[in-house]
User: Fold this.
Amino acid sequence: MEEFEKALESKDCQRILEILDDYLEKIENEDELRAFLEKVETLILKCEAPDAYELAHEIAHIYAHLGELDKGMEIYKKLVERYKEEREKYLDALYHLADAYEHFGMPNKAIDAYEKLLKLEKKIGNKREEALTLAHIAINYDELEEIDRSIELMNKASKMFKELGDERNYLVSILNLAHFHYEVGDYNRAEELILEVLKSPRDVEIEVNARIVEAEIKAAQEDFKKAFSAVRFGLLKALEAEDEDLFTLAFEALYEFITCLLYTSDAADEGLGVDLGGRRI
Assistant:
């Protein structure tokens, strides 16, 4: 408790992040928790990125657990307001607000925030960030099951990544497009896109996710042997990479695949586990 108060008094945001979990374990009741939240909220507005956003994320999760997520989102809104007169920091704050809405399952609000960000990026002329934001908007329309709109926007983003020579984000956008086409039942187009990704993936994370989407497509076509082969290949690649998160993703895909075969004969339809790479992730 004393260490926390000392870090709070010295406005040591990084130290607060380091001891946060230990401190939370010592809180005994809701009144103490709310007093803690109030103190940390005040501190967040004095922190700089990335600590401010990491703390905001942690506090928003606590509010979500209390059934008061709106209070958590208010912190992000205050950070946006704080940086209104500092262009780069304002853009970053807008991104983190949109990303938080996306993370907490509010795609409509995420789209609104991303579109505000997109207008500013177009005005500045930052094509790479514009493409990244378009891709994020596409992903959120997918959450709303507006797949045609998702495909339209991701195609725009993909074209921009290709023109910019951003190979990794180009491949990620193609991978997302494959997933979108799979969702609308256009398996031939989805397969074409997956083959394009797998020609030269150069990135284990992308390759593993590509194999998972390939498995979805093959299972939907009731070619279960090839579906299992794709999941197996993805699992082995993740194992070779010694990446625990990637292995977990591939293992869960395998588990879902087997479970769905047993109970529904349908492939698992999970979201992709690969991020667009950029300043704003």
About this structure: The first helix runs from residue 2 to 9. The radius of gyration is 21 Å.
